[in-house]
């Protein structure tokens, strides 16, 4: 069970877009660059066994510019096309054309019109009844906006063409078609990129169609929000001097009450958000007077409110004093970890995992003394910062085994432009524009900033990214007694999500949950898994090492769930075991 992606050239953006989504889901695939290699029968099938369960073409007819012939031509020879079609007929294999732009030898049952640009004005497109069935997770009442790519509006050319997406004027921009020889094809007549919203919205449905809803891999929507420096304080941006100044802010009890009310509202009013929570990375020494008198927490209004509502959140060790750990000794590191751990136990924090830690300013990851202390203290998961290429995901939804301490998994965490030192709209506007004025060539309002940051986070959700997001306690200041910068941002993200998505629950994983997911995916990526669908008999799996294989579309006794209407089974295999 594997897909074959055929592209005219390696750098084709449509190929890059679909392989990004395949990687996020974990679906095995091969890429054939047609200008470098033609198809051979042994690549496609052997005897009665098909090697690929579906075919994805980056562009409909694999056109490329031939310098030698000074013309556009198909990268596949006619013989290769005929071989591909024979394969699809013989084994009932579906073919997806991500970007059908005309030419020969295939018209996909549509007649293309003139190209329409969407760089300035987006093109809203609408699901037909057939489209609703193929993309059941989308909110069919809301149009999908196609933008920043060329579009070729089309008309159906045969009775066997079934439109999936239509423009307001009735032109077809995606369609199913059954060819005269019985092959099933799906063609989209607009382009795709790795950042295009329409690609993220439609990509899963296209993949699900070409695989017939059965594939190795899994998709979930994640929103993992980590808020650092709880109980502590942050210095604030000075809007007058344009620098991080001397003023400080520590959450008030009313701020904590506001975020509790916000969580309750979102969970009760928004579908798909029933398990929404925030992960609080805490510094207990930040409680006024706590270092000398642990009973001080009972006299601190913020601590009283947070402890009263503690089950609404999860709790992560952030170090006792927020000590920077790049140069810390073993003894200093041990004290920083264990004193905060002991304080967490004394405070009675229930949703707290002592094996997880977010270090101050993501420090210490290259300090062998801190790492040794962390290991000895039972820490098994830390976060890293994806803005540092060394600590970004090597592959989607995987972590990084710390090279100095292999017992510790580093979970790549995404920074955001909701900065640690902003607590009000004025502060956020001032700092954001101080950094990005040169890029935008103007100042952005706070509403515009929310849109920019919210759209980025939305795309993380829509590409099934499990990396946590980084925020800070100052971002939870209830600047108008009703909302905070962080809740404003999350409100935007969730509202946009529900514009487009139907019944697809959002998952909020703990660090332990993220670590388990990332460790499983990393192991799967290094495992040779032979997954074969035997028609009339079932699914056969074999691996060259012990591994858990996620399979979507199959119900297997054991670890199995229904997510967004599809079965997802986790199949545990032993070394060389055939299942």
Describe the structure.
The protein has 579 residues and is of the alpha/beta class. It folds into three domains: 3-213, Rossmann fold (3-Layer(aba) Sandwich), CATH 3.40.50; 221-507, Alpha-Beta Barrel (TIM Barrel); 527-573, no CATH class. 29% of the residues lie in helices and 26% in strands. It is built from 13 helices and 33 strands. A nine-stranded mixed sheet has the order 2-1-5-8-15-14-13-10-11. A five-stranded parallel sheet has the order 23-22-21-18-27, covered by helices on one side. The protein has a four-stranded antiparallel sheet with strand order 16-31-33-32, with helices on one face. Helix 8 runs parallel beside helix 9. The longest helix has 18 residues, at 330-347. The two termini are 14 Å apart. The mean pLDDT is 95.
Give a quick rundown of the structure:
The chain is of the alpha/beta class and 579 residues long. 29% of the residues lie in helices and 26% in strands. It is globular, with a radius of gyration of 26 Å.
Helix-strand layout with pairing:
Layout: E1 3-7, H1 13-25, E2 29-33, H2 41-44, E3 45-46, E4 49-50, E5 54-57, E6 63-66, E7 71-74, H3 78-91, E8 94-97, E9 110-112, E10 123-127, H4 129-134, E11 144-146, E12 154-156, E13 161-167, E14 172-178, E15 184-188, H5 197-210, E16 215-216, E17 221-222, E18 225-230, E19 234-238, E20 243-249, H6 253-269, E21 278-282, H7 301-308, E22 313-317, H8 330-347, E23 352-357, H9 368-376, E24 381-385, E25 400-401, E26 409-413, H10 425-440, H11 446-462, E27 469-472, H12 485-500, E28 506-507, H13 511-525, E29 529-534, E30 538-543, E31 547-552, E32 559-563, E33 566-573
Parallel strand pairs: 1-2, 1-5, 5-8, 8-15, 17-28, 18-21, 18-27, 21-22, 22-23, 24-26
Antiparallel strand pairs: 3-4, 6-7, 9-12, 10-11, 10-13, 13-14, 14-15, 16-31, 19-20, 25-26, 29-30, 31-33, 32-33
Helix pairs in contact: 1-5, 6-7, 8-9, 11-12
